[in-house]
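Researcher: Sit down with what I've pasted below and flag anything odd:
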Amino acid sequence: MKEYIEKWSWKRIIQVIVGIYFIWNYIEDGMLFSLIFGGMMAFQAILNVGCFSTKGCAVPVNNNQDYSDNDEVDFEEVN
């Protein structure tokens, strides 16, 4: 458990705190949105998934393709 917590970044800690705040807000006010939003925030932070994870929401870049400015492009006329 100690190794798991040591890998956490400050963003994950803040996300868990925000999630707990919204869950607490649901307990106090009974707003269902607070429970759903807080649950998702806490869930993503605890499991390290979603946009706050280490990979984020970015699409992976494939650097293996070789693009050259000298490549010719063939165009075909469509009627």
Summary: Residues 8 and 23 are 21 Å apart (CA to CA). The chain has a mean pLDDT of 80. The longest helix spans residues 10-29.
